[in-house]
Amino acid sequence: MDTDVIFVVGFFIIVLAIPAIVSAFMDSRVPRAPMLTILIGSVMIAYAVRERPGAYGYDTVPDVIVRVFADFTR
User: Fold this and answer.
1) Where are the alpha helices (DSSP H) in 1-74?
2) What is the spatial distance between Cα 48 and Cα 6, in angstroms, rounded to a whole number?
3) Domain residue spans of the chain
4) Which terminus of the chain is more exposed, N or C, with fewer CB under 10 A?
5) Whole-model pTM?
């Protein structure tokens, strides 16, 4: 699997876990599952960054996301 795809999937896993964390805190629950989800997403991002050092930065994240979605729409 391409590291760009791993990076984007990890990024979106983290983004989708944020509402679950907010919901858990609002209900006074411990956010165990959302934290595990964020851990999985973080490991995916760390793997992609480790495999291609210097390829991912704050300015390149939108380009990577668009490139991955463009590859899937072909």
Assistant:
1) 3-26, 32-51, 61-73
2) 6
3) 3-73
4) C
5) 0.87
pLDDT tens per residue, range 24-63 = 999 989 889 999 999 999 999 999 999 988 888 889 999 9
Q: Which amino acid is at 37?
A: T
Report the C-alpha gap between 50 and 70 in whole angstroms.
Answer: 24
What's the burial of 59, exposed, middle or buried (CB within 10 Å: 0-12/13-18/19+)?
Answer: exposed
Token duo for residue 39: 């851990």
Contacting residues for 44 by C-beta, under 8 A, at least 6 apart: 6, 7, 9, 10, 13
Question: For residues 51, 58, 62 and 37, what is the CA-based torsion angle, rounded to 10 degrees?
Answer: 60
